[in-house]
Amino acid sequence: MGANNGKQCGSEGKGSSSISSDVSSGTDHTPTKAPRNVTASEDPVVLQIFAHLSTPQLCRCARVCRRWYSLAWDPRLWRTIRLSGELLHADRALKVLTQRLCQDTPNVCLTLEMVVASGCPRLSDRGLRVLGQCCPELRHLEVAGCYNVSNEAVFDVVSRCPNLEHLDVSGCPKVTCISLTQESSLPLSPLHGQEIGLRYLDMTDCTSLEDEGLRAIALHCPLLTHLYLRRCTRLTDEALRQLTLHCPALRQLSLSDCHLLGDFGLREVARMEGQLRHLSVAHCSRITDVGMRYVARYCPRLRYLNARGCEGITDQGLSHLARGCPKLRALDVGRCPLVSDMGLEVLARCCAGLRRLSLKGCESLTGRGLKALATGCPELQMLNVQECEVPAEVLRLIRRHRRRCVIEHTNPAFY
């Protein structure tokens, strides 16, 4: 793959030198007479070593000698660029790197497929525009925490990089829409039938995202399979209806800490023709047993559910869920004080394949339900009963039946 798919050794950080300076120096100090081309067949060992270097290290290696210069800029080493560091001039670094990579194919870099610039606060729209203009083969882009990035730059990238499948703009509060129209407020369908090929979109902590923005995303990104909207606190139930209408392939969805969402929105999400496998509605306090009934009815293939902190869920909702979603592998109902032994007994009878269960802070548990889990869930690998008043002998019983199960607890009498 590429040099930068390996571990990020010596990544840029505070006080470190700029990558753009390394690239510029490496280019400027190379003799005007072009170095003899060194092929991978002549020096495969060095090329393999270079393939494990980070982006900054590879740039510095290009300054050592002519031979290393030719090897360090082998196109196969530049399928991925990874940048990091609060002081890094990310815009300039991307400009210089893409210019160097475009030398053999003027103005176009055909090798670059992945750019990871998360945690580079100095990255702005200018840097992303460079990628949109020069890197049509880009497939994977991560700019998490780059709070200067806005809708305009995202538009440039998604409209000029037709192969883009993975986009992470988490922690970018200026991003309010992903679409093929410059104005997110315009109620337009994708231009000339075009659509964005995104499969994975992370908009966690995009705090300005509203219903209209999510509607545009659903219209323009119908191929989405993974969507993360954690802490997008302005979204309401009405917005989720657009996902049902336009994103039928959605398999993983996170709505954690979206406090305005309730049972109606969960009903809309659940009606995705049974495609959902992973769903998180943690700390959505308006969700109750009614929402769990919808999930149980429409999501028989659900594998993972995080409903931590949904205090309106009771044993009745858990029972509906267990009966309707027998393929559950992981479940978190921590901080749901109305969940008790009765709900766990139904869970143990109906979900024999359960592997991970969190009951942290469920104060109504006594131990009867946990005994049922110990005998009814032979694949159980992790059980969290922290802040639950569970007798030590019950925990010992679980350990005896499920030796491979990791038990997280706060009972000092159990060792």
TrEMBL record:
Region of interest called Disordered, as start-end residue ranges on this chain:
1-38
Gene3D superfamilies the record matches: Ribonuclease Inhibitor
Q: Does the keyword Nucleotide-binding apply?
A: no
Q: Which domain of life is it from?
A: Eukaryota
Q: Which GO terms describe its cellular component?
A: cytoplasm
Biased composition regions of type Low complexity, renumbered to the chain: 10-26
Keyword entries, A-Z: Ubl conjugation pathway
Instruction: Enumerate the InterPro entries for this protein.
Output: F-box-like_dom_sf, F-box_dom, F-box_LRR-repeat, FBXL15_LRR, Leu-rich_rpt_Cys-con_subtyp, LRR_dom_sf
Residues of the F-box domain: 35-81
- So where does this one cross the membrane? none
* PANTHER family named among the record's database cross-references: F-BOX AND LEUCINE RICH REPEAT PROTEIN 7, MITOCHONDRIAL ATP SYNTHASE COUPLING FACTOR B
Q: This chain belongs to which protein, by name?
A: F-box/LRR-repeat protein 7 isoform X3
- What is the source species? Ictalurus punctatus
